[in-house]
Task: inverse folding
């Protein structure tokens, strides 16, 4: 991968001038490369990694991983049904995976019931969906390469025998 992309992937807040200094290149060349990457769809979005546990609205959303087993369609394979599934606004990520299941979805919902309703009413009834397994995320320790700090230390009482 290009050095500019590697730098932006680690810290999207770096300015073209900072990147140019780090790479010993001219800022104009860096600006042009970034614009080209954006135009070609190589750079799709800039984002911040948020520790939602420390944010004021902590606990306001539930994240789930959903494994989906599907029947591929003739001539289009998994792509058409995957497109149908990732078009739902509740689905934040969708991956074709190897193994027992075909797709892995990352879903965000207001609460457990919202996610459950999505699976029961929207996902499972789809024609090519053969089965699903839902895993609710209980705690995040690391996301996108960033270790998340937590509000308080674990205050469990030690048990001795």
Result:
């Amino acid at each position: 991968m290009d050095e500019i992309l590697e730098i932006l992937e680690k810290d999207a807040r770096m300015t073209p001038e900072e990147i140019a200094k780090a790479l010993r290149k001219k800022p104009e060349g860096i600006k042009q490369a970034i614009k080209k990457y954006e135009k070609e769809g190589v750079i799709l979005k800039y984002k911040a990694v948020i520790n939602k546990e420390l944010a004021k609205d902590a606990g306001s959303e539930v994240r789930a991983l959903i494994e989906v087993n599907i029947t591929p369609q003739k001539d289009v394979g998994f792509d058409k049904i995957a497109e149908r599934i990732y078009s739902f606004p509740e689905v934040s990520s969708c991956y074709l995976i190897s193994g027992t299941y075909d797709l892995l979805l990352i879903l965000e919902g207001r609460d457990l019931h919202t996610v459950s309703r999505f699976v029961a009413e929207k996902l499972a009834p789809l024609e090519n969906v053969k089965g699903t397994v839902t895993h609710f995320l209980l705690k995040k320790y690391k996301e996108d390469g960033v270790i998340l700090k937590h509000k308080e230390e674990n205050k469990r009482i030690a048990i001795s025998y």
Q: What stands out?
A: The longest strand covers residues 62-70. The beta strands are 62-70, 91-96, 103-109, 129-136, 142-143, 146-147.
